[in-house]
Amino acid sequence: MSDDPFTERWLTALREEWNRPGGLGDRLEEIGFDSVVAFGLPEEDAPRVCLVIRAGHIAEASADGCHEAEWDIRASRAQWLAWLREPPGLLAIGMAFTSGVLSIRRGDYASMIKDPVMAEMFVTSFAVMSRAYRNQCELPTA
Predict the structure, then answer these.
(1) In 3D, which of 44, 136, 121 has the Cα closest to residue 81?
(2) Overall fold of domain 8-136
(3) How far apart, in whole angstroms, are the C-alpha atoms of residue 51 and residue 17?
(4) Is there a smaller number of Cβ atoms within 10 Å at the N or the C end of the chain?
(5) pTM score
């Protein structure tokens, strides 16, 4: 697998895994979740990934970055790869945020983590990202 955590292959796998019936997208749709979420590296100005989430499902996924994100989540390349290989739980995410390993450039982490449903969905999103990372090797090459 690539040492770049944000490949087009991963984005394709992520969209499929997120939007699969009964998956995270359906659960987020139940709570009316719409957002634009970006992921990236702390040393870069622009995020690497942009997810446009409508009615809980990924409507658009791009590796071209994103400037209008409501959430901008950053971690080092090594940390993203570690989380993609083994997704963190709530405690690990909290520790990463508190220690600065995980930074939220946009978005209200404190409010989100206090909402049990949103906190669960946030943690679940890491598990979905990890499954997509593992599943990307099963995608046909372009």
Answers:
(1) 136
(2) Nonspecific Lipid-transfer Protein; Chain A (3.30.1050)
(3) 13
(4) C
(5) 0.90
